[in-house]
Amino acid sequence: AYTSASCRHRFSGVLGLAGCFGLKRRPDLVRYGFRQSAGCRRRAASAVGSRESLLELLQQVVPSGKDVQLQMAAERPKWSRKELKRQQAELQQKVAQILEGGSIGSAISLLREALWSGWPLPALEQALQRLLRGVVPARLDQVLQLCFEILSCSEESFSEATLSMLVAELVDVGKWDAAEAILQHAVSINHVKMRTLQPLLTALAAAGDSSRLRRFFEDLLHPVVCRRQARLNGTAVATLLRGFAEKPALQEEVLTLLSKTELEMSSTCLDKISEALACKELQGLRGEVVMRPLCQLRRLSPKVRHVDMARKEAAALLKPETCRRLSAALQDGHGGGPTCFVDGPNVGYRGAVQRRQAAEGSREGAGGKNFSREGDTEISNLHAAYFRHDQIEATMLHLRELGEVPLLVMPERYIFAGDAQAQKGPKKPLNSLVQSWLSGNSLFVVSDDEPDDAVWIFASLHGKTGDRGRYIVTRDKAANHRASIWGIDFGESLQDLELERSFRRWSALYLRWHALSWDGCNHYGAVTVRIDETPPLSTEIQQHEGIWYIPEATGARWLQISDAKRGLDPKPPNPPAKLGTVELLPGTCPLIPPPPSLAAFWRA
């Protein structure tokens, strides 16, 4: 049955439906839920999912369904794709005009005529959806009978949108069992979204039937969300929390499921959950939206296997000699090797755009930042002339003042004069600062044909997993390496979700944000360096000491959910990080002590 392609559309039950969708290999069947290993309930749910079962269901729902005499449809018209879209639009417009006149029966007759004329299901669905949106409960049986006739003449099933509308209409008229059966069918053919489940979920929660709501959650919604066929949103979470208002253990299961299948929520979803927590029905839970959790959340570590994979992928982007030199630099050096790394190009280019604009003026009409003013001539590095080595030196001095042993990572083009790769013999440093870094063994040089980002990513993952002592000073979020190093495919699978979770945890553990400011906003003047010593939070849903923390997708807000009897975390926020000021003048590198207060710093 897994390999038989000639019997497509002829199998009954689950395997027949799998053939209809071209799922002939075992992994495909497992992926779409046709082969489950979790007991009779899921096997029964898969069996209900066949197209034949949906036809039987519609016959049972429609009182006259068993007596319907199906007419033989005419031969299917041979339309091009453009002609099919035109016919769809015309039919949908006609149905809309008829419904505006209040004649639902005429709209049903129009669709039935198109069906017997040989129109395929995809050509009829948009008009059918418009009919479902305008139907009144008294005429629902006639529309369901039309659905039965359309499905009987087709070898396909309805789309997710049509199935969602059918579920919503059946819920509105109180036929919950039929709606749940259609949901089972939609799940089995993977034509389901959260909007398909929401009408029945809302009805069960509003009815106060917590036992049936629990069965719906455990038998249908939970497996669907775990398989990523549908994703929890703010409305669904708020409905479940309200429905389980008297069952704190089930509320905890809902939040646990959310944390396993989502990393953050959108602003709209966060607001909906917050509004639900403020209602009287949820007196057992308390929610509050904050800019940052007041407590010190535990530092979450990426999974070991993900770290090992990322380390290998980062090493694959570098030359073997570079990996050998880097491993030696990490193990030797002063006091057991460096304690942190500095992304040299990222620091040196801070303010380069403003310096170029001050020198050259604005570039109106330029195609992009790497294109010249005169035309579309591409420039390899537009801001290279405004690169400042002294900004890097200021950052290095600030780190040493904090007791760190920094290792600067820089490509050759920022270190040596001329074409370093073409030169023979000793290479000449660009300036005295570069010479001091080289003589002080605080510089790691990367060839220009290697990605320097891979060096500090590999270095941060070097050694024991969870070693948090070696962080990177950079404003680079390394998002462009999520695919090349971390293997994130940007899909909807749980594997991609877990890889993204490990990447975010690594970013929170190892990346430190730095800020540079210049006296009087003069980007050629003295530099003030600030490095955030407080590790950022991993932007993911997490629980700490019984309190749930749900971040907004932008990371700007967090929703804290806790037991109302316990209250939210009263711990004060962490003290601000130390601030240091370094002023660089030609030929000198004096260190100026930090200002006496934070207000004085910002005034400066």
Give an overview of the whole structure.
By secondary structure, the protein is an alpha/beta fold. Among the domains are: 1-35, no CATH class; 36-192, no CATH class; 304-359 and 383-531, 3-Layer(aba) Sandwich (Rossmann fold). Helices cover 46% and strands 9% of the residues. It has 24 helices and 13 strands. It has helices at residues 13-20, 26-31, 40-48, 51-61, 81-100, 104-116, 121-134, 140-152, 160-172, 176-188, 194-207, 210-226, 234-243, 248-261, 267-277, 304-316, 320-331, 344-348, 352-360, 389-401, 432-439, 452-460, 494-510, 598-603, and strands spanning 285-290, 340-343, 406-411, 443-446, 471-473, 511-512, 514-518, 527-531, 542-544, 547-551, 558-563, 580-582, 591-592. It has a five-stranded parallel β-sheet with strand order 4-3-2-5-6, with helices on both faces. Strands 1-11-10-9 form a four-stranded antiparallel β-sheet, with helices on one face. A four-stranded antiparallel β-sheet has the order 7-8-12-13, covered by helices on one side. Helix 23 links the parallel strand 5 and strand 6 (511-512). Helix 7 runs parallel beside helix 9, helix 11 runs parallel beside helix 13 and helix 16 runs antiparallel to helix 22 (452-460). The longest helix is centred in the N-terminal third of the chain and has 20 residues, at 81-100. The N and C termini lie far apart (75 Å). Mean pLDDT is 79; it is low at 1-49, 375-379 and 572-604.
